[in-house]
Structure formats: C-alpha cells, structure tokens
Design goal:
binds zinc ion
C-alpha cells in the first residue's frame, strides 16, 4: 500500500532537518483552500489554462512553464488530498524548475478534497456544517443522510448526489456490494485524520473516493486508462495527449517518515536505461541532502520490486484497478515517477525533497535530449 490513506508509522517523528530555512521553501505552507492555491498562482503571474471543472465548478488548471524544447515534462500532484507537500512542491516547481524543456503542471487534481471535509459536505447539504468531533459529525450524517451502511465502525450515507463516510472504505468493501447501488458513478468523501500532520489533521482535508459504474470503490488516482473516468482524470489525460510528455512526475506522500519513489518498466531498453539513470540520480540527490531514505528492508507492497534503496518498480498488472497517473504516463508516453515523501517529516522538508527529486531527474532527462 503506497499512499492511499493508510498510515505506516516508522518510529518517532524525526527532528526537523536544518533545511527548514532553505531559501527555496522558506515561505512554503500548505494551502488551506483550493481558492488560496489559485490566488497564489495568479499573484505569481501564472497564466492558468482551465482544463475542465470539478463537480463544485472549481477549475482544474494547468500551467505552462519552462522553455519551448520538446519532449515536455509533466508534473502533477494532489490526487490524494492529505498529501499536501506534493501540491506545494508542484506550485514551487513552476518557477523553480530551470530547464529549456516545456514544463506543464497540474498542481492539484482534487480541488474539492483540498478544501476540506466540511466543504465537501457542504456540496451535499447546501451549507457548511458545524461540528468539532467525529461523534458530532457522525450524528450529523445519520440525521441528514440516507444511511447505506452502519456496521463495524463504518458509516456511509447518501446526501444529495454524494456519499459521505466516517473513514476510508477503499479496499474495505467488496466490489458490487448491494448498498453501493445508489452511489454507482458517484463520489464518497471521508475526513482526513492525521492528528500529528498539520494540514491533514481531522476534517482538514476530504479524501475523495470514486465508486465505479460496477460498484467498486476506488480513488482519484485511478481511471487513467478507462473509458469511464471522473472529470479530474479526464482533464489530466487530455492535457497529456496534447503535450506528449517525455517524463511524468506525480508527487505523493505516505504515512511514514522516510522517502522513496516508484518507477515503471519502459517499452524499450534505451528508454529503460534513461529512466534508471534518472531514478538513480534522483535517489542520489535526495540521499546526499541528508534526508532519511526508506530503510533497506522496506517494501511499499506486493506489487513493488526494489531497484535500489528508496527506488521501486511498480507493476500495475499485479496490483489491478487499472492505471494510475504514473502507470499511464509510462504505458503511453515515457518515463514516469510517483514520488512519496514521508508525512511524518516537517512540511518544508517534504516539499524540498519532492522538488529535489524532480530537479535531479530532469538534469538527466536534459542530457538525453542534448
Ligand atoms: Zn498518494
């Protein structure tokens, strides 16, 4: 399991690294609302290309940076709303990735999730609800919603067009379960609750689950290769089709305190040699910065195999559920990385490690096309 809402504690919280005042991330903080992110992009003078609209009419935006050289570099983040350092890193990279290649950035693929659980609930209720505790929130769901499931600590209700749950249901509910019938093709939101992670504490984010037309509970980082897909995903693949990226970076986080990333097998030996060079150089740069790498015996899950410390091949055919963004990038376009910073590290450090991974890999990417 990579970064899908499951905590993988790895010991005590690490001491803040000395790079907390590093010039590249001194002013970086998590965005509280998606509107704050859009505001920041506009203030920095970026031209926003609207790729489509989330169900709340939030624009999904792409920004072009870098130079004119092809192939393009594609950077995205924010499909899992608790993983906010990736979003901040994607925003910073718009200005701070120095390259002649075209750079396209979708900094947040789940605007509703970023704006938090109370906000997501307001889409069903028609007003922003007030509650402070999980018990109060559950009472509200039972009171205002049609209860679809209330057993074994799992509560799921339907309010308006949407499902709301008290906890994660991904891989916790059998595909085709009868009570999912009214949620087919719709969303379920449940609250973040990383109490020790500022920005992802209780109710601060809404985690978005998507119920497929055949009643399987998945999430926004799936559907990249399926005919039926949520609008956020379709925006992403349309942009990718128009830019044909030579390398794709998807910036995630996981519940530990170390760093790792995954890559995908490539179609040709030459492509794979370059992908491995990019991966090794990115891992070397992060290690050299003094960051804590995933321990040598760490494995993110059964569908990963280790390439070197902190670097894993991900095989989506073993995992199932179709292709995530990086799987799709590798399958259709070229090299693709899913970066996983450890949420139990200080925020700025995580942002910096994400940026460093992209910057180091891009140096090798440039070398290939020199
Ligand atoms: Zn993730």
């Amino acid at each position: 399991m990579a970064c899908i809402g499951l905590a993988i504690p790895q010991g005590l919280r690490a001491e803040p690294p000395s790079d907390d005042q590093h010039p590249s991330t001194r002013a970086v903080r998590p965005f509280n609302r998606y509107s704050d992110l859009l505001e920041t992009l506009k203030k920095r003078g970026h031209k926003l290309r609207v790729l489509g609209y989330a169900p709340d009419r939030s624009p999904i935006v792409g920004i072009k940076a870098g130079g004119d050289k092809k192939p393009a570099i594609f950077i995205s983040a924010g499909s899992h709303s608790t993983e906010q350092a990736g979003v901040a890193a994607a925003v910073e990279l718009i200005d701070k990735l120095d390259t002649k290649h075209q750079v396209y950035v979708i900094p947040c693929r789940d605007p509703i999730g970023l704006s938090g659980f109370r906000y997501a609930l307001s889409l069903g209720l028609g007003e922003v609800p007030e509650f402070e505790t999980m018990e109060q929130m559950e009472a509200l769901l039972r009171d205002r919603g049609e209860v679809l499931l209330d057993a074994d600590g799992k509560l799921l209700v339907l309010i308006g067009e949407y499902g709301y749950a008290n906890r994660g249901l991904y891989r916790k509910i059998e595909k085709g379960a009868a009570f999912l019938e009214p949620l087919k093709g719709r969303r379920i939101w449940f609250p973040s609750r990383y109490e020790d992670v500022p920005g992802s504490a209780l109710f601060e984010r809404a985690y978005t689950l998507v119920v497929t037309p055949d009643a399987e509970v998945l999430h926004i980082n799936r559907f990249h290769d399926t005919a039926w897909a949520p609008t956020e995903v379709r925006c992403t693949r349309q942009l990718m089709a128009s830019i044909n990226p030579g390398v794709t970076f998807d910036l995630h986080e996981f519940g530990g305190d170390s760093f790792w990333f995954s890559v995908r097998r490539q179609k040709t030996d030459e492509d794979e040699i370059w992908e491995r060079r990019m991966a090794s150089e990115a891992a070397r740069a992060v290690r050299a910065s003094g960051a804590k790498m995933a321990p040598d015996n760490y494995s993110p899950g059964s569908f990963f195999s280790k390439l070197e410390q902190g670097v894993f091949w991900l095989d989506p055919s073993q995992r199932g559920e179709g292709l995530n963004l990086a799987d799709f990038g590798a399958n259709r376009y070229g090299a693709a990385f899913t970066v996983e910073t450890g949420m139990r590290q200080p925020f700025k450090h995580r942002v910096r490690m994400s940026m460093l991974t992209v910057q180091a890999a891009v140096r090798v990417f440039e070398e290939r096309y020199r």
